[in-house]
Write a structure and sequence with these properties.
Layout (H helix, E strand, L loop, with lengths): L16 H13 L6 E2 L7 E5 L2 H20 L8 E6 L3 E3 L2 E3 L2 E3 L4 E5 L1 H10 L9 H20 L7 H14 L3 H9 L14 H6 L1 H14 L3 H10 L7
Parallel strand pairs: 2-3, 3-7
Antiparallel strand pairs: 1-2, 4-5, 6-7
Helix pairs in contact: 2-4, 4-5, 5-8
Pfam family, one: DUF6639
Keywords: Membrane, Transmembrane, Transmembrane helix
InterPro entries: DUF6639 (IPR046579)
């Protein structure tokens, strides 16, 4: 929960319920007062962090992610906010490395300190935590935001979203670190899009990510497959 300083509201009349709701929504969605807006030169991106180094590294990750996705045929003009939060994150009761809210265009990623603590419980991709791996968490969520703006179908599948996010996360790692990560997994690439299933994703998300990256790397025309995901539904087994 973000810390919110006490606010003294004084007025000469009754405050309307609508105004109170607006104020509450602002307090819930605004970053805590300890967070500072980072001077990130990437267009359309607003980034908050309570640690200057974290903010700089996250901004670098955003730039790298958008450059890669642009090279793969994505439009990268989506507007979104990133909040590097000083707490662990969870979704549906499960600890996660980041979240993207498509309704508010808002990304949350635990700051590096919290990511390191989380890695003691759940090593990411069987790797030791480092700042480069942490940057890949940012890349994963930015990929969700960009993909959201590029999908041409209503209600795209979770597995299509995660295929894109995991491919971007691994593709934007330095080559040596990516190779080290891949060597920790012996699972082959997806052989057919029917294998890119929600069941697989939910049972073993990191294995899903590795298989997705290997599928991407083996594609003769990966840009065309990305467009396939953005414009038509996967023939996957749910």
């Amino acid at each position: 929960m973000r810390r919110v300083d006490e606010v003294d509201i004084k007025c000469c009349g009754a405050i309307s319920m609508q105004l109170l709701l607006v104020a509450l929504l602002w307090l819930v969605n605004a970053p805590g007062y300890s967070a500072t807006r980072v001077a990130c030169p990437v267009p359309n991106v607003t980034l908050f962090s309570d640690q200057a180094e974290d903010g700089e590294l996250a901004c670098q990750a955003v730039g790298t992610t958008l450059a890669f996705m642009r090279s793969q045929g994505f439009r990268v003009d989506a507007e979104f906010t990133i909040d590097l939060v000083d707490r662990p994150l969870s979704l549906h009761g499960t600890e996660v490395t980041g979240t993207y809210d498509s309704r508010s265009f808002h990304i949350k990623v635990p700051n590096f300190k919290n990511a390191r603590l989380m890695a003691l419980r759940h090593p990411p991709f069987r790797m030791r935590m480092c700042r480069t791996i942490w940057q890949s968490f940012v890349a994963h969520e930015v990929a969700h935001a960009v993909a959201h703006a590029n999908f041409q179908i209503s209600k795209p599948s979770l597995e299509a979203h995660e295929y894109i996010a995991y491919v971007v996360q691994l593709a934007t790692l330095p080559q040596a670190l990516r190779q080290q990560l891949l060597e920790a997994f012996d699972q082959p690439a997806f052989q057919h899009e029917r294998q890119i299933s929600r069941i697989f994703l939910q049972l073993a998300p990191e294995v899903f990510g590795v298989k997705a990256y290997r599928h991407y790397a083996a594609e003769p025309d990966p840009q065309a497959f990305f467009q396939r995901l953005l414009n038509r539904r996967l023939r996957s087994l749910h």
